[in-house]
Amino acid sequence: MTRHEQLIAALQHNFGFDNFKGNQEAIINNVMDGKNTFVLMPTGGGKSLCYQLPALLMDGVAIVISPLIALMKNQVDAMRSYYDEDSIAHFINSSLSRPEIHAVHDDIIAGKTKLLYMAPEGLQKSENVELLQGVKVSFYAIDEAHCISEWGHDFRPEYRNIRPLIEKIGAAPIIALTATATPKVQQDIQKNLVITDATIFKSSFNRPNLYYEVRPKTEDVNKDLVRFIKQMDGKSGIVYCMARKEVESMAQILQVNNISALPYHAGMDTEERSKNQDAFLMEKCQVIVATIAFGMGIDKPDVRFVIHYDVPKSLEGYYQETGRAGRDGGEGRCLCFYSPKDIERLRSFQQDKSRQENNMQEAEISNQLLAETQQYMEASTCRRRLLLHYFGERYTEENCGCCDNCNKVFRQYDATELLGLMIETVQDCNERFKPEHIIDILHGNDTPDVLSFEHNKLENFGIASDEEESLLQAIMKEALLHGFLQKDANTYGSVHITPQGKKFLRKPSKFEIPIEVTSEDAEENMQQHMIGSSAADDELFSILKDLRKKMAKIHEVPPYVIFQDPSLEAMATFYPITVEELQNIPGVGAGKAKRYGAEFLKVIKEYVEENEIIRPEDLRVKTVAHKSAHKVAIIEAIDRRVALDDLAIRFGMSIEELIKEVEAIVYSGTKLNIRYFLEEVIDPDAVEEIYDYFKHAESDNIKKAMEELGEDYYTEVEVRLVRIQFHSDLGN
Predict the structure, then answer these.
(1) Strand pairing report for 305-308 and 237-240
(2) Highest averaged pLDDT of the listed ranges 76-90, 478-492, 528-542, 714-728
């Protein structure tokens, strides 16, 4: 029997497959010939089989070095499912008791175990080194080998100590495997493991069944995300969030919207985390909401969507995480919500961390990885081509037909004049402010920062107020990409003018940018992949406005104190008919629902029955009540009459940030009394005048209030403070 026939027979007998995929057979032959091997194979390509099958056929035990307990357990369970004896595969890690570890040692010494999974931290323990020195090691498999490289997306310092441990235990061939490695990372891995002689097997990174899409991360991101998942019709998916707190919050949001979802992050109890992972694998829940650690090596072939709620730290990480969708070759939707502010937040966090650890090289690497991610997120060209190019692979198709950019139609927009105004504004601001601030000035947005620096008095303030803000953002993006402007990482992303930008100011030349346009064909194509938003019922909205006006007259308060327009629009969209449903409407807390809700619910219910409306329960996006981390402490402090500026210092906030927290508390229906603080910081006559303004105003809009009251007389902080007291007195 030839080697090929032996391998096919072993494949059928052990795993039930009739044929190998891609390079699998060549890789296995290379390992069995005792040669060092480097495998670069996308998620779903069958990397595990490349070391599992030769381990079963070769003498001795194969040491598989793996980064996560969850990954080890998953792989060991999978191997044991093919055999009667559990001894065929073991792991040694902190989840095992001392007696369990001794039992594993016995199986290894007896020669029963063919695969032993360990983390590098466990491998370096003296008792494990001594154990392995006394047995025959067939080969070492380094799974998730990108963890070795500082340029990799999951760098772990312990991985760089693997080679010395191998030499200590005893030499044997090495196979390093990863789904994501740029040429630079690949060289770093080979150099560190001392396998520059390795035979390299590189599969294509192209996953034709995956659809890549990037959407702006707006205030409605939670609604957009929920609707996307609802449209996936119960299919399995993963939602990745950057922080543990966001994981918990997002899991709650999905749960209250009747989506079966569970959280997964390192801060959870080990047993609960494992239980949630198993529930996802066993399809007892539809969605797992997780930090990026989840999914490394998880063998679930039918994940149909992967959503990044936060932008990933690198394109390698993004590719690895999206690769967990459609591993069976079926449908795989990869959606990322992107905001430039997320990039700035990550960059700022990394710089602070690097300064504290005095490791500026790490900051430099992180900045470069983030810059590459940002370029991908903001690109208007084929996303598949960009991803493959990043990994050193050329994609020659003009249109992949399976990413959002290839399903859009663009036209060239002459942005010459607006680019000149943008560069002028950066110059007028002494090159000290971020892109968002420059756009606020051009668009005429009187934000607290714009007002505090008096940039509303600049000549260019509001000069582009007739343009869409999205257009100004697109021009800023292109100005940065084309090198007219650049961000300074050392000053947290402030914009500077490059020599090219200064030349443009002196002698402008035509500057065009691609702007998305819609056509019937493009719209039809996009509808297959995008989810539209539901429109409000105009007739019901009008009825609710009349009711609000009537109730405002009864209670002798302005209509907006009852419910604001966005709340009425949501009611006219989702038709709440119970108090619970009403409290899930944005801007409606328990206090408002109790005080004003009954009349509105009665009208909505009658309207629904009379018009035989089928309420859009499947699209109704509920919200989890805003739970400020400081909410209880703020309420208690105000009850004790603590000065708000002192309270802001205590929580490490600016006064504006604290006011925003207090506003959220009051708007949700909690009654607060901050008159003691108003008396301290604002003249009583001023308080009375501002308070009286809101009594008779049609809206509580701060911009309109400042125009009416006069910016020379009152600050925005003063007006907002009085507005809080006004809402608390009359609205709650």
Answers:
(1) parallel
(2) 714-728
Residue 149 pLDDT exceeds 90: no
Which residues are CB-contacts of 349 (< 8 A; sequence separation ≥ 6)? none
As a whole number of angstroms, the distance between CA 186 and CA 188 comes to 5
Q: Determine contact, residues 20/11, Cβ cutoff 8 Å.
A: yes
pLDDT of residue 604: 92
Distance CA 272, CA 50 (A): 32
What residues contact 394, with CB distance under 8 A and at least 6 apart?
A: 388
SS (H, E, C) 538-603: HHHHHHHHHHHHHHHHHHCCCHHHHCCHHHHHHHHHHCCCCHHHHHCCCCCCHHHHHHHHHHHHHH
Local confidence band at 348 (pLDDT 50, 70, 90 cut-offs): confident
- The H or E element spanning position 40 is strand 37-40
* pLDDT tens digits along 130-145: 999 999 999 999 988 8
**pTM score, two decimals?**
0.55
Provide the CA 56 distance to its chain's centre, in angstroms: 40
Distance, in Å, from the CA atom of 629 to the CA atom of 632, rounded to the nearest integer, reads 8
User: What is the helix (H) or strand (E) element at residue 127, kind and residue range?
Assistant: helix 126-133
Helix (H) or strand (E) holding 330, with range, is: none
Domains (range + CATH), the chain: 3-202 (3.40.50.300), 210-351+380-407 (3.40.50.300), 409-527 (1.10.10.10), 538-610 (1.10.150.80), 631-731 (1.10.10.1390)
Above 70 in pLDDT, residue 543? yes
